[in-house]
Specification:
Blueprint: E1 11-14, H1 21-51, H2 58-86, E2 93-94, H3 95-128, H4 130-136, H5 139-165, E3 168-169, E4 174-175, H6 182-187, E5 189-190, H7 194-227, H8 232-260, H9 269-294, H10 296-309
Parallel strand pairs: 1-4
Antiparallel strand pairs: 1-2, 3-5
Helix pairs in contact: 1-2, 1-9, 1-10, 2-3, 2-9, 3-4, 3-5, 3-7, 3-8, 5-7, 7-8, 8-9
Length: 312
C-alpha cells in the first residue's frame, strides 16, 4: 500500500461508533429513521412545489432545488454508513469507491452551500424591491444561478478529489470516520500533503466563507428593509420566511466551518465525526421540517395537494 501506483489494492475500513453491538444497532436504527425522514420530507417539498401552480415562483424554485440536492447529498453518505453500522465495520470500501463517494459528497455539499447563498440573494431582492423583483429574477436567471451552483460544486469537487487521490497511502487503512471525508483521508496519506490541504482551504473559502459573507450582508439589508415596513402582517411574513432560511444557514455553515475552516493539523477525528453527523444526517431532515413549519404558503399548498391527490 505504500505506492500510489498500487491503488487498485487499497481498501479503507470505517471506524465503529462503538464496539458494543447493541449501541451500534441503536445508532443504526436512529440513522435509518433520520435518513428515511429526510427522504420523505424533501421529496414531499419537491412534489408539493411541482404540483401546486401557485408555488411556481423563484423562491420555491430554489427551495425545490435545495430539496432535490438534499436527497442526493444525504444518499451519498447514508446508505454506506448504514451498511457499515449493520456489519460492524467488516465491509471495506475500495480506493475507487472512496474517491467516488468523496467526489459526490464535496460536489453536492458545495452546491448546497452555494445554493443557500443564492436563496439569500433571492430573498434580498424580493424584500428590497418587490416591484422590480419579477423583472430581475426571471426564470432564465434562476435556472442559470442553480446550474452555476452545480457547475462550481462539480469543478471544486473534481479538483479536490484528484489532488487527494493522487497521493500515496501507507500504514493503517482504518478511517476514523463513517464515510470518505476529506480530512480523515488526508490523515492516511504519506508524503507532502500541502497542495491538497491548500485545495481544501480554497474550496472551503469558496463554498463557506464567501456565501456566508454574502448571506450576512444580505440579511443586514433585509432586516433594515423589514423594519421600515408599515404593515405588521408584511413584517411578520417577511421575518417568518427569512428566519426559516437563516436557521438552515446557521446550522449548515456553522457545523461545516468547525471542520473545514481550521488548520488540518488541529483536526480532531472524534469531534469531526460527531459534527459530521449533523450536516450529513440531521440537516437534510431539518430543512423540510423548518421550511414546512415556518412557511404558511407551503403548508397550505401541502394541504391542497394532499386533498387533491391523496384524499380522493
Amino acid at each position: 500500500m505504500g505506492d500510489g501506483n498500487q491503488t487498485g489494492e487499497i481498501k479503507f475500513y470505517f471506524q465503529l461508533f462503538s464496539p458494543i453491538l447493541e449501541v451500534q444497532m441503536f445508532i443504526y436504527v436512529t440513522f435509518l429513521l433520520i435518513y428515511i425522514g429526510s427522504l420523505i420530507g424533501n421529496a414531499t417539498i419537491f412534489l408539493t412545489i411541482w404540483a401546486e401552480h401557485s408555488l411556481h415562483t423563484p423562491m420555491y424554485f430554489f427551495l425545490a432545488s435545495l430539496a432535490v440536492l438534499e436527497i442526493f447529498y444525504s444518499s451519498t453518505v447514508a446508505p454506506l454508513a448504514l451498511v457499515n453500522l449493520l456489519t460492524m465495520g467488516k465491509i471495506p470500501i475500495s480506493f475507487t469507491g472512496c474517491g467516488t463517494q468523496m467526489f459526490f459528497f464535496v460536489f453536492l455539499g458545495s452546491a448546497d452551500c452555494i445554493l443557500l447563498g443564492i436563496m439569500a440573494y433571492d430573498r434580498f431582492m424580493a424584500i428590497r424591491d418587490p416591484l422590480s423583483y419579477t423583472l430581475i429574477m426571471r426564470w432564465q436567471l434562476c435556472v442559470q444561478l442553480a446550474m452555476g451552483a452545480l457547475v462550481l460544486g462539480f469543478i471544486l469537487a473534481l479538483l479536490l478529489t484528484i489532488f487527494i487521490f493522487h497521493l500515496s497511502f501507507c500504514g493503517h487503512n482504518r478511517l476514523t470516520h463513517f464515510y470518505c471525508d476529506v480530512l480523515p483521508i488526508l490523515r492516511l496519506a504519506c508524503g507532502d500533503t500541502q497542495m491538497p490541504e491548500a485545495m481544501v482551504f480554497i474550496t472551503s473559502v469558496i463554498t463557506l466563507t464567501i456565501p456566508f459573507s454574502l448571506i450576512s450582508t444580505s440579511y443586514i439589508f433585509i432586516v433594515a428593509t423589514i423594519l421600515k415596513m408599515h404593515s405588521v402582517e408584511g413584517r411578520h411574513k417577511a421575518f417568518s420566511t427569512c428566519s426559516s432560511h437563516l436557521t438552515v444557514v446557521l446550522l449548515q455553515y456553522g457545523c461545516c466551518s468547525l471542520i473545514y475552516l481550521r488548520p488540518s493539523s488541529s483536526y480532531n477525528p472524534e469531534m469531526g465525526r460527531a459534527v459530521s453527523v449533523v450536516y450529513t444526517f440531521v440537516t437534510p431532515l431539518l430543512n423540510p421540517l423548518i421550511y414546512s413549519m415556518r412557511n404558511k404558503e407551503l403548508k397550505d399548498a401541502l394541504n391542497k395537494v394532499t386533498k387533491r391527490y391523496v384524499l380522493i
